[in-house]
Amino acid sequence: MTASPVLHLEINGVHTLAFHLNQQGQANAELVRAYFAADFLTTTVGLRRLVIDLTGVISLDSASLGPLVQKLREIQEIKGQLALAGVNSPALKEIFALTRFDKVFPIYGTREEAITAMKS
Question: Which residue among 19, 23, 96, 109 is least crowded, i.e. fewest CB within 10 A of its CB?
Answer without folding.
Answer: 23
